[in-house]
Amino acid sequence: MSNIRNILGIAMAFVGVVVGAGFASGQEVLQFFSSFGYWGLLGGVVSGLCFTILGMAVGELSQVSVSHSFKEGLYLICGPRLGVVVDIMITFFMYAIAVVMFAGGGSLMEQQWGVPAQYGSVAVMLITVLIVFLRVDRVMAFIGSVTPILVLMMVFLCIYSWNTRDLPLEELDVIAHTKPQGAGHWLVGALLYVSYNMVVGAPFLMIAGAQATSRRNALLGGLVGGLLLGFLIVLISAGVFGRIDTIGSAALPMLMLATEQSRLLGTIMSVVVFAMILTTSVGVLYSFSARIFTPNTRKFNIGTAIAGVLGLVGAKIGFINLVGTVYPFFGYLGFVLMAWILIAWFRLRRLQSRHAT
């Protein structure tokens, strides 16, 4: 039972960090999957397989270099020279994503509950910083606790979407291709989506995997997390595709679908999306702070608090716009990271087989 709890804890934390606000609301899934129609659903399956393989690889590699930070694992994967470059870029990216989540949470609170965006951003920052102050196992528990609720919501909304669709699939497929697409081809979109999200997810999975009680548990945690991500991608993309004629132009498609069903469900969905914003902001800010300071120390807490406050300033002076221009670059950086993760994993497996014989 303790092994199952350990595996699920790692898996849920991995999913919680990757999902974020755009994933949960359906906007990212719309652009990278649903907008490609039938092919987009296949793209969801491809992404799920990639997340599964990479999750297993990072999970097992995290046990080779157990650490509170992702630095050692990153250097193990990329080597000393490339590792320095990738380390600096990912550390910056972790912080950039935290800033985006602060602003995104503020915008959601303003839209749904009438709280001024700047106050909402302050609230998200304070909650995030306070949770990051906790030990890594409690951070993982918080991030993982929201994932089961999200899965249940998405199953319900997907069923509702298909039961209420008005158009035949052929017409929905035509409409889907008129929506903004995240890439020029469905397969490129699927791979780019995995690439970008692994830049966010791999560092925290390295930290979470290091908390595993065995290498097997770390590997299975990555496996289950990857499978669950794939399941969610297909589920959300199918839900958006089923009603793409009515919700395809919405900023938050799944939230619009939930609100259409009932005001209460819309409110619950808003809370879930807000919680997913928090899980992502907590995961990336923890990874960022743990890279620079030793967790559970006074310096770590002070540094995290300062980073949180500066994040609010960064959001105000247009830092988010800067991040928006470098997102595609980090997507392609993710391809490099994915390749080196697989190379390092194959090397580890080969060494294990040699020792076994």
UniProtKB/TrEMBL annotation:
<dbReference type="InterPro" id="IPR038728">
    <property type="entry name" value="YkvI-like"/>
</dbReference>
<feature type="transmembrane region" description="Helical">
    <location>
        <begin position="183"/>
        <end position="207"/>
    </location>
</feature>
<keyword id="KW-0812">Transmembrane</keyword>
<feature type="transmembrane region" description="Helical">
    <location>
        <begin position="82"/>
        <end position="104"/>
    </location>
</feature>
<keyword id="KW-0472">Membrane</keyword>
<feature type="transmembrane region" description="Helical">
    <location>
        <begin position="329"/>
        <end position="348"/>
    </location>
</feature>
<protein>
    <recommendedName>
        <fullName>Membrane protein YkvI</fullName>
    </recommendedName>
</protein>
<keyword id="KW-1133">Transmembrane helix</keyword>
<feature type="transmembrane region" description="Helical">
    <location>
        <begin position="300"/>
        <end position="323"/>
    </location>
</feature>
<feature type="transmembrane region" description="Helical">
    <location>
        <begin position="36"/>
        <end position="61"/>
    </location>
</feature>
<feature type="transmembrane region" description="Helical">
    <location>
        <begin position="219"/>
        <end position="244"/>
    </location>
</feature>
<feature type="transmembrane region" description="Helical">
    <location>
        <begin position="116"/>
        <end position="134"/>
    </location>
</feature>
<feature type="transmembrane region" description="Helical">
    <location>
        <begin position="141"/>
        <end position="163"/>
    </location>
</feature>
<feature type="transmembrane region" description="Helical">
    <location>
        <begin position="264"/>
        <end position="288"/>
    </location>
</feature>
